[in-house]
UniProtKB/TrEMBL annotation:
Signal found in the keyword field: no
Name recorded for this polypeptide: Uncharacterized protein
Keyword Oxidoreductase annotated: no
InterPro entries tied to this protein: WD40/YVTN_repeat-like_dom_sf, WD40_repeat_dom_sf, WD40_rpt, WD_repeat_GAD-1
Annotated source species: Panagrolaimus superbus
Basic and acidic residues biased stretches: 1-28, 651-660
Range of residues in the leader sequence: none
Family: Belongs to the WD repeat GAD-1 family.
Segments traversing the membrane: none
């Protein structure tokens, strides 16, 4: 320690002692402090309650027709949030005190954690009506808005938007995983790409492609990342397109003359259905009219051939007699452990994924009396939903697969591409219907059933047209339906749907300005052009001088422009071309013809007076005319030529002969 520090301590001993005491007190206080604890359940409950209040205020901005229903829902939500039980099953009053100890009721379902101690709720949003028990099944829901939420509020069909695909039936639809794009394909051989962010209220596609020329589009499927689109058509090859509709790969076409399907490297007939693996983004499944299902992988793509040269596995479908049957649809289970196929003989065959696929795990030969249109596994993977051409919709339990658990009849089906499926939360199942020909007026519809007992809950009907394909996107909560008249319908609800059609339904239509011409006059100041701007560092180059202006104008004048010469003539092709004669001597014929011409016309070539050389043959031509004079030898043996007139005389006209 330096001498100055020692002297300062000797001069101020009291200050040092005071600082030491304050440090000791601070240490003692810090040691007595306890770690701060946070009650996460209390924070969550407060967040939920604030969000419910904001939702109630947001719903108040709806139209007058929806205000009564949304107000009741908001009141019910506010009632659910108050009161709540804490961990000791004590009811917390408005002042935050625990008043009465109650027993836990088995029918009383607690929603969320307890309120924080000392929390005083807002009395303006409290409801005195007691909250009733919510039923577990959708069939128990009441249509009274004062009691429970009705069924129609859970199906996003409040608003409708129309999309025109063409004049023929729309057989297939596909959303990407994020819900930003969707595609449509049908009997007009076209695949149209739609982007919600780029569309306006006109709902027009940003691209239309014909991947297989004159083949019908049977099925479409987007990958899990939305980068690859599978296109299955009436052709045996599967097309792989990117998000912008450009084809980057295709599958190989198999040899149709081979009897064993396992020896072919690809399909040999039309592709009926395609689907991606739910977990593996590189694997996809296809079924075809050749009687096989094939597992493919995008890792087998060859850059040189731009083709997937072979499949990973081949699954053969057989009927009861052991012969080949055609799979019309296929699907994966939600966990990807099962593969199901529906055949044209009405059978459903299910294999376990990852095995050799020699034997089926579940089999039902008499599932339907006709071809199966669509299959869909339930969210828990224990049931499977099937739609058939026998006008039925059936629900099977995999444990008891021989007989359906529930069945709905009298659902007309005209297209083998008709769809069925589950809602995003699994409370509904839906299917499409289309009227048959010869039964009067063709009508169709989109039907929603209870997933537990297949009771009809909601119905959307279409006049003079049938519904073919349908897709319900889980993130957007919007339904897209393809109809037989070449149009599509997209249904949404502003209360539950997000993005998607909400972005473009209210967007004004852009004007088409390609045919408009606007005359614009531009005024250009010469000194403002780049060529007049100073570029050097010297004083003369920094400013625009008269000498620089003259130099630029002189360079632009025609005096400095180079004189382009006539380009050289192209070489001749053959003996003669382009009005020019080839040089003689190339062949014997050309050499002889040239020599004969030179020998006969030698005097004519050497004669300098051309006129004298021509008049030399005048006497011979007069005695033995060859061309014109020979024709007038009888009528005019001596030629009479017109005399030169010095003065201009009036022309002589022919005088008509008098009628005899």
């Amino acid at each position: 320690m330096s001498s100055s520090e020692e002297s300062s301590k000797q001069e101020h001993p009291q200050e040092d002692s005071h600082q030491s005491t304050t440090k000791d007190e601070t240490k003692s206080k810090n040691s007595s402090k306890k770690a701060q604890h946070f009650d996460f359940e209390t924070l969550f409950q407060k967040t939920i309650h604030d969000q419910q209040i904001r939702n109630a205020e947001r719903q108040a901005t709806f139209t007058d027709t929806d205000r009564e229903e949304t107000a009741d829902v908001a009141e019910q939500l506010a009632a659910v949030s108050l009161p709540r039980r804490d961990r000791g099953n004590n009811i917390v009053d408005a002042n935050g005190a625990n008043n009465v100890q109650v027993e836990e009721d088995e029918n009383d379902d607690d929603v969320g954690p307890a309120l924080p101690p000392g929390f005083i709720p807002d009395t303006s949003v409290q409801v005195k009506v007691a909250q009733k028990d919510m039923p577990n099944e959708p069939s128990q829901w009441s249509n009274d808005d004062d009691e429970d939420v009705n069924v129609s509020s859970l199906i996003p069909a409040t608003y409708e938007a129309k999309i025109v695909h063409g004049h023929k039936a729309v057989l297939s639809l596909a959303f990407d995983a994020q819900g930003s794009k969707f595609v449509t394909g049908g009997q007009n051989y076209a695949v149209q790409f739609f982007d919600f962010l780029k569309m306006d209220s006109a709902m027009k596609p940003f691209r239309e492609v014909f991947p297989a020329e004159s083949h019908v589009i049977n099925t479409l499927a987007f990958s899990s990342n939305g980068e690859t689109l599978l296109v299955g058509t009436g052709e045996a090859q599967i097309r792989l397109l990117d998000r912008m509709g450009k084809q980057w790969a295709e599958t190989v076409r198999g040899d149709q003359y081979l009897v064993d399907l396992g020896n072919t490297k690809g399909h040999t007939a039309a592709v009926n259905h395609l689907c991606w693996h739910p977990l593996n983004k590189k694997e996809y499944l296809s079924c075809s009219d050749d009687g096989s299902l094939r597992l493919w992988s995008t890792d087998d793509f060859k850059t040189i051939t731009k083709c997937i040269n072979t499949q990973r596995k081949v699954i053969k479908t057989r009927n009861a007699g052991g012969r080949r049957t055609i799979p019309t649809t296929c699907c994966y289970s939600r966990d990807g452990k099962l593969i199901a196929a529906g055949c044209d003989d009405g059978s459903i065959q299910i294999w376990k994924h990852g095995h050799n696929f020699a034997n089926v795990k579940y089999l039902n030969r008499n599932a339907h009396n006709g071809a199966i249109c669509s299959l869909e596994f339930s969210p828990d993977g224990k049931q499977i939903l099937s739609r058939g051409m026998d006008d039925t919709l059936k629900l099977f339990n995999l444990e008891k697969f021989k007989e359906p658990v529930h069945e709905v009849k009298n659902l007309p089906c005209m297209f083998v591409q008709s769809s069925c499926g589950y809602s995003p939360h699994g409370e509904f199942v839906f299917t499409t219907t289309s009227g048959r020909e010869g039964k009067g007026k063709d009508t169709g519809g989109l039907l929603f059933f209870n997933s537990s007992n297949l009771e009809l809950q909601y119905r959307i009907e279409y006049d003079d047209t049938g519904a073919v394909s349908c897709s319900w996107h889980p993130k957007l909560d919007q339904i897209l339906v393809g109809l037989s008249d070449g149009t599509c319908r997209i249904y949404y609800d502003p209360r539950s749907s997000i993005r998607g059609a909400l972005l473009c339904a209210t967007r004004p239509v852009k004007r088409v300005r390609t045919n408009e011409v606007v005359k614009e006059e531009m005024i250009i100041a010469p000194l403002a052009l780049e060529m007049f701007q100073p570029r050097g560092e010297e004083g003369e180059e920094k400013d625009v001088t008269e000498w620089r202006l003259r130099r630029v104008l002189r360079m632009q004048s025609g005096r400095k422009k180079p004189q382009f010469r006539k380009p050289a003539e192209m070489p001749m092709q053959g003996t003669s071309a382009g009005g020019r004669l080839a040089k003689s001597g190339g062949t014997l014929h050309s050499y002889i013809a040239q020599e004969l011409g030179k020998s006969q016309n030698q005097t004519f070539i050497q004669d300098e007076d051309v006129r004298a050389s021509i008049l030399r043959h005048a006497d011979a031509a007069e005695k033995e005319p060859l061309y014109i004079s020979k024709a007038y030898k009888r009528t005019q043996p001596v030629p009479i030529f017109a005399e030169d007139e010095e003065e201009d005389n009036e022309p002589e006209y022919k005088v008509s002969k008098p009628n005899s």
